[in-house]
Design goal:
The protein is an alpha+beta fold. The protein has 17 helices and 17 strands. Its main location: other.
């Protein structure tokens, strides 16, 4: 997700050079301050951009969640969006959604936060349309206009959009300062920190991209979240999950949030002084096929290659051997348990490898074997087990004799740029949902201008997605979602592999971790206390 740039390798190396104890109360290797005024969180996620127009990934969203206000947001435990910067938001007509802002809102730099700020924030995401940005979430927004200082009106292309209020809570929703952020370009992280165009519960003090980020409580915040209980929070970025595990195990940091290996989690469950917290699932791991550059002489051959791969993967083996059951097989793009989820991949391609079926797909389409497939994965963004996961995929495909897999890996920030430049015929992605609705696993993936950038677009799918988003009857909407999932399984632009839960590890003195591991999939620093 939900849910992407090139200094990561350098930044990661620098982070390692800082040493294991460099993120505590100081650089002397001592433990972090055990008092209640500060907290250190470690992660292997990388920030692509603090500017919402330039990022649609979990690492960037983690930062944006703390420092920006949204019109609506999910306070901990809420199952529907609640007012944040807005006083209220409602549909005036089936195609107009109006929000009234609270009075007296300001950014941390002192500039006023008005309806004009809101309209500017949403319009620039669409206008910039950065390939790493969240513009695909706003496909149903025809226009946005500030009608006065506190009123903003969204006009929608299709009526009765059941998901639009939740879209306001996503990566497309942060409100930025129009006097600081350019209308036609992404602001650099350094400029964003210097400008202080933040109005969330925290602001950013010192900042070294993908090394250390220091957050300071914003006493002027007036929104959906609780006031910050910890005045200063530091995020330390790790290039190696092994060092993240060691630091939380030794309690050199207070919280480890993404991504520890299943073996590390299992070990930490028996470690004195720390607690493993789990929360609502919904993460999806999958392979994307670039429909332009993948193997195959024509569309029919390309589809046969994808169908053969779908017939050969053994999700259960990956779940058990690589992830020790912390991820489970995914037989649809919508994770099991969400309303509307079906299992078309199991029905079409089976739950166990079928080499005969795979061979028939290829033979019927006239595809010569073995098929040479260049498969790219990322070693730092989706956890340290990604190498084991994709080596297992390679083994499974090659064991059939039908594929020769050239497995390659690239650091995340470079990976993000190269995948949208058609450099990878097939590649790993993962999804962290923007909001707890099954549509969030459909529209961002398969609508026109989708974030996958894999050259997939189908008018029939677009029509289905428009229909399910605007259908108010739950049973009819679930049926439409089922049709969309079936179409994905038949066309195979992506191959779902696994879905999993949220996991964080914290020292025993940290409270509130479980309160933020909810279905909204937003890690809120305001939930934490010591």
């Amino acid at each position: 997700m939900k849910k992407y740039r090139a200094a990561a390798a350098i930044a990661g190396a620098a982070a390692l050079t800082l040493g294991v104890g460099a993120c505590g109360a100081g650089n002397d290797g001592s433990d972090p301050d055990s008092g209640s005024d500060s907290l250190v969180l470690g992660t292997t996620d990388k920030v692509v951009s603090i500017d919402p127009a330039g990022a649609y990934d979990n690492g960037s969203l983690m930062v944006q969640t703390q420092v920006y206000q949204y019109l609506l947001n999910f306070p901990e435990g809420a199952d529907s969006p609640q007012p944040d910067a807005a006083e209220s938001c409602d549909f005036d007509t089936p195609t107009t959604y109006t929000c009234t802002l609270k009075d007296g809102l300001t950014f941390a730099n002192g500039n006023p936060l008005t309806a004009e700020s809101v309209a500017f924030s949403f319009q620039r995401i669409v206008d910039i349309d950065d390939p790493n940005g969240p513009a695909s979430l706003l496909t149903n927004m025809a226009s946005v206009e500030a009608t006065d200082d506190t009123t903003v009106v969204f006009t929608l292309k299709t009526p009765n959009d059941q998901t639009f209020p939740q879209v306001l809570v996503t990566s497309a929703g942060p409100i930025v300062d129009e006097s600081v952020y350019p209308a036609d370009a992404v602001l650099s992280d350094e400029e964003a920190v210097e400008a202080q165009g933040f109005s969330g519960p925290y602001t950013i003090g010192s900042y070294e991209k993908n090394q250390l980020a220091e957050f300071e409580a914003n006493d002027d915040y007036d929104g959906a979240y609780n006031a910050a209980q910890i005045p200063q929070v530091t995020i330390k970025y790790y290039a190696d999950a092994n060092n993240l595990k060691l630091d939380i195990e030794k309690q050199n940091i207070d919280v480890a949030w993404r991504s520890l290996s299943p073996t590390d989690i299992e070990s930490l469950e028996d470690t004195d002084g720390v607690t493993v917290h789990t929360g609502a699932g919904g993460e999806l791991r999958y392979i994307v096929f670039n429909l332009k550059t993948m193997p195959g002489a024509d569309d029919a051959q390309k589809l046969a290659v994808r169908q053969a791969a779908a017939s050969l993967v053994d999700r259960q083996a990956i779940s058990e051997q690589v992830y020790k059951g912390t991820y489970v097989p995914a037989y649809s793009v919508i994770p099991e348990g969400l309303p509307g989820a079906t299992t078309p991949f199991e029905e079409l391609y089976g739950s166990a490898p079928d080499a005969d079926a795979a061979a028939k797909y290829l033979s019927d389409a006239g595809v010569s074997t073995p098929v040479e497939l260049n498969l790219q994965y990322n070693p730092d963004h989706y956890g340290s087990s990604s190498d084991q996961e994709y080596n297992e995929v390679k083994r499974q495909l090659e064991e059939s004799g039908l594929f020769t897999v050239n497995l390659q890996s690239t650091e995340w920030t470079t990976y993000s740029e190269e995948r949208v430049a058609d450099a990878y015929p097939a590649y790993q992605l993962g999804w962290f949902p923007d909001f707890p609705d099954a549509d969030n696993y459909l529209t961002p993936f398969f609508a026109p201008n989708n974030f996958l950038q894999s050259h997939y677009e189908d008018p029939a799918m677009t029509k289905l997605l428009d229909a399910e988003r605007t259908e108010s009857d739950p049973a009819t909407r679930e049926d439409l979602m089922g049709q969309a999932q079936q179409m994905v399984a038949e066309q195979l632009p992506i191959l779902p592999l696994l879905s999993g839960a949220q996991v964080a590890v914290a020292t025993d003195e940290v409270q509130g971790v479980e309160n933020t591991l909810d279905a909204a999939f937003k890690f809120r620093l305001t939930s934490l206390s010591k």
